[in-house]
Amino acid sequence: MINWIQKNKIGLSALALIILTTFLLVLSLSQQNQLTTRPDDVPLRKSPNRQSKQILALKSGTKLTVLKRQNGWWYVKDAKDDKAGWVASWVANNTFLKKPTALSEATIVLDPGHGGSDTGAMSYNNKYYEKTYTLKTALATRKELEKTGARVLMTRTTDVVVPLLYIPRKAEKYQADAQISFHFDASGSHNSASGISQYYYNSNSLGLVQSLSNSLNNLPLQNRGYDSIPYLVIKDVTRPAVLLEMGFIDSDKDLTYIKSTSYQEKVAKDVKAGLLNYIQNN
């Protein structure tokens, strides 16, 4: 027997390696289909969306088996009481959220206008570009929204061109609750205009633009109000979508705010407040 083992040592080693690899693979796959909730009161819903009926609230540490995945929503079964339903995976897996907020199950797409070779509008001296501050403002907004547990998706996070036709695709793919495009206006004449404006197009975006417009009244720049305009990024999308013009970049007064980190953070907080109000009422 010992001689046989010695003669077949290489083959036995290979077999042992195969068995170990198979075991580790099976173990890994089984763990991928397991989920332990982290926050308290994670909603278990009948369908993969936040407006679906809640079956129950899952306590922190609830062990679940993942049976199906759909755009970030997972169909799970609770082994303990045999209940099955859908959870927002980004909520169930959240490591810092103690309890979900009204915004936690929401999916928000943030679109920093322009980018790359497309500078957007420029300051009067051509020194400051719209693309720079749309990105800064959107990133500040993402940071603020992520505190609520919301899933935040960006159309860009660096200085690159994003084709206009591509922008609505992310909101459509993930069935976003809101798509918000950030821009800065220009009058074409130095210091001839000032203030912020909000735009929507489709009727399902009216509630969103109204809620955001109300919350943005807190900013130091005059709110010129909202209007309906067929901009491509808010027109060719079925999800609620708005475009925010957060100041005139060719106005010295507005530019001082636009460049300010504190102004960008104020915009972020007000957008969060507007979204919270909108979600709670929808």
UniProtKB/TrEMBL annotation:
Domain of life of the organism encoding this protein: Bacteria
PROSITE patterns in the cross-refs: SH3B (PS51781)
Classification via InterPro entries: MurNAc-LAA_cat, N-acetylmuramoyl_amidase_3, SH3-like_bac-type
Gene3D superfamilies referenced in this protein's UniProt entry, alphabetically: SH3 Domains (2.30.30.40), Zn-dependent exopeptidases (3.40.630.40)
Pfam families listed in its UniProt record: Amidase_3, SH3_3
Coiled-coil regions listed: none
Protein name: SH3 domain-containing protein
Phylogenetic placement of the source organism: Bacteria, Bacillati, Bacillota, Bacilli, Lactobacillales
